[in-house]
Write a structure and sequence with these properties.
Elements: H1 11-26, E1 33-35, H2 36-46, H3 52-65, E2 72-74, H4 75-96, E3 103-104, H5 106-114, H6 122-130, E4 140-141, H7 142-149, H8 157-168, H9 184-188, H10 191-209, H11 211-223, H12 228-239, H13 248-273, H14 286-315, H15 325-336, H16 345-373, H17 382-412, H18 419-430, H19 439-463
Antiparallel strand pairs: 1-2, 3-4
C-alpha cells in the first residue's frame, strides 16, 4: 500500500506568500521593479529538487519568456503570472489524480504516461517518482508537483510529463539517436511538426558547418590519401574555399526525407507492436526499441541510398566537371544504369549493425558509470548525456569504419570490385591503416558538429515553443 498524504487546501496562498515575501526583500526601495539577475538568484534558491545547472537554465528561460524591459522586471506582472501558473499546475495535477485523493500513485502515473505512448515498467515508475518524492512515500503530492514544475517551460500536462521523463532519462538506449513517438494530441496541435522541423534545421546547420571536414574525409577514403593537410591543400588549390562544400547540398537535401521515412517506419513498428494499451499488459522493452530504431534507420537509409552515392560522386568531382546536379545524374545513369545507385550497399549494410550494437552498449555503460562515480546516482545533465552520446558514437563509428571506407571507395571507383576484392586490395597495399584513411577529419568534426546541432536545436525549441 502507498502512504497517503493530505492535500493542502491553501497551498497556493502559502506559495504566493513566499513569493510576495521574496519580492518585498528584493524591492527594498518599493519601486515595483526588481533586477532580473537578483530575482533569478532568489528563485533558484527556492528549488531544492533540480540539479543546480538545470534549475538555473529553467529560471533563466522562464524569466526571459516574461520579456522584461532592460535589466528589471515588473513585480506585479511577475506575481500575476506565477499565480496563473499555480492554477494551471493544479489543473494538470487534478487531471492525473484519477481518484481525487490528493496524491498521484504509480498506477495513476502509468496511465498518464500511456497517453504519451510510453509504457513504463514498475522499476521505472519508481525511479521517475523518486525524482520529486521528497518524503519517500512512493506517491506524489500537490506541493511536490508544484515545486518540480514551477518554472517549467509549459504547465500543460503532456508537455510536463514528456520533459519529466526526458529529464530522468529512463531508457537504457541512446535517446539521441532514437526516433520520437508522438501522441494524437501532439499531432493535432502541431507539436510533432515543430519538433521535427527543429531537428531538421539543427541537422542541416550542423552538417553545413562541418562540410569541409566531411568532404576531406570522403576524398581521403576514396583515394587512399593518408595525410590530412596535404589533401586539404590539394582540394584548396583545385577549387578554392568553395570546393570544401562540394556535395553538401545533396547531403543536406537527403536529411529531411531520411528523417521522415525513419520516423514513419518507427511509429508503424511501435503501433504494430501494440504497446499503447492503458492496461499495460506487455510493456515494450529497451531491446525492442533498439531493434525498432535499427530497423527503421536501416530501411530509411536503403530508401535514400542513391542520394548517398550521388553525394560521394559530387564530392569527388573537380571544378567545372558538371554544370548542374542533373547533368551529373544523367552522366552516371548513362554510364552504368540503375545499378550505380546501389554501389557499396552491401558494405554499408554490414557496417550498420556493429555500429548500432557498440553505440547501444557503450552509451548505457558510460551513463551508468557516470551516475555511480560522479553524480552519486543522480542523472547527468542533458549536455553531459550529449557528450556521452558523442563518445559512444565515436567508438561505434570506429568499429564499423572499415566497412564505411569500403562503401565510399566502391561508390566512387571506375572499375567495380566486389566487397571481398576491395578488402583484399586495401589490405595488400596499405595494411590495417588503409581501412582508417579519413578517420582523423571525421573525428575532428564530431564535437563541433554535435555542439552546433545541440545549440541550434535548443534555440529552435525556444523559437518554436516546443516545450510549451
Amino acid at each position: 500500500m502507498f502512504t497517503r498524504k493530505k492535500r493542502s487546501s491553501n497551498l497556493d496562498e502559502i506559495d504566493m506568500a513566499k513569493l510576495q515575501s521574496l519580492i518585498d526583500n528584493l524591492d527594498k526601495d518599493k519601486t515595483g521593479r526588481v533586477k532580473v539577475t537578483d530575482l533569478a538568484n532568489a528563485l533558484q534558491e527556492m528549488d531544492d529538487i533540480h540539479p543546480k545547472q538545470e534549475v538555473k537554465k529553467q529560471v533563466r528561460r522562464f524569466l526571459s519568456s516574461l520579456k522584461p524591459k532592460g535589466d528589471r522586471i515588473d513585480t506585479k506582472t511577475f506575481l500575476e503570472i506565477m499565480l496563473e501558473r499555480e492554477k494551471q499546475l493544479k489543473l494538470s495535477f487534478d487531471e492525473i489524480d484519477l481518484n481525487k485523493d490528493g496524491v498521484v500513485d504509480p498506477l495513476e502515473l502509468a496511465k498518464a504516461f500511456s497517453r504519451l505512448k510510453v509504457v513504463l515498467k514498475k522499476k521505472d515508475l519508481m525511479k521517475i517518482i523518486e525524482v520529486i518524492d521528497r518524503d519517500k512515500s512512493l506517491t506524489i503530492g500537490l506541493d511536490e508537483w508544484m515545486q518540480y514544475f514551477r518554472f517549467a517551460p509549459s504547465t500543460e500536462l503532456e508537455a510536463s510529463l514528456r520533459s519529466w521523463r526526458r529529464g530522468v532519462q529512463l531508457d537504457t538506449i541512446n535517446e539521441q539517436t532514437m526516433p520520437n513517438s508522438y501522441t494524437e494530441k501532439e499531432h493535432e496541435n502541431g507539436f510533432w511538426a515543430r519538433h521535427f522541423i527543429a531537428g531538421a534545421i539543427s541537422g542541416m546547420v550542423s552538417r553545413t558547418a562541418s562540410a569541409p571536414l566531411d568532404r576531406l574525409k570522403i576524398y581521403m577514403q576514396a583515394t587512399g590519401k593518408a595525410k590530412v593537410f596535404s589533401t586539404a591543400s590539394k582540394l584548396y588549390a583545385e577549387g578554392g574555399v568553395k570546393s570544401f562544400w562540394r556535395g553538401n547540398g545533396i547531403a543536406v537535401f537527403k536529411m529531411t526525407p531520411e528523417m521522415a521515412i525513419r520516423q514513419g517506419i518507427f511509429e508503424t513498428l511501435r503501433e504494430m507492436r501494440g504497446d499503447y494499451d492503458e492496461l499495460i499488459i506487455s510493456p515494450i522493452s529497451s531491446k525492442e526499441l533498439f531493434g525498432f530504431g535499427c530497423l527503421s534507420g536501416f530501411l530509411a537509409q536503403t530508401c535514400i541510398y542513391p542520394l548517398e552515392v550521388l553525394k560521394t560522386q559530387a564530392a569527388m568531382r573537380t571544378t567545372g566537371q558538371y554544370k548542374t546536379i542533373f547533368e551529373l545524374i544523367r552522366k552516371l545513369y548513362n554510364a552504368e544504369g540503375w545499378r550505380i545507385w546501389y554501389r557499396g550497399y552491401l558494405a554499408n549494410s554490414i557496417g550498420v549493425f556493429p555500429a548500432a550494437g557498440v553505440d547501444f552498449a557503450l552509451y548505457e555503460y558510460l551513463r551508468r558509470l557516470y551516475r555511480e562515480k560522479v553524480t552519486s546516482l543522480e542523472e547527468p545533465s542533458m549536455f553531459t548525456l550529449v557528450m556521452l552520446s558523442n563518445i559512444s558514437s565515436i567508438c561505434a563509428m570506429y568499429s564499423a569504419y572499415p566497412f564505411y571506407l569500403v562503401r565510399t571507395r566502391q561508390q566512387y571507383q571506375i572499375v567495380q570490385e566486389s566487397l571481398f576484392e576491395m578488402i583484399g586490395k586495401i589490405w595488400r597495399i596499405d595494411g590495417w591503416r588503409g581501412f582508417y584513411y579519413g578517420s582523423i577529419p571525421n573525428l575532428m568534426k564530431v564535437l563541433p558538429a554535435s555542439t552546433i546541432a545541440y545549440l541550434v536545436f535548443e534555440y529552435c525549441s525556444y523559437l518554436f515553443d516546443i516545450d510549451r
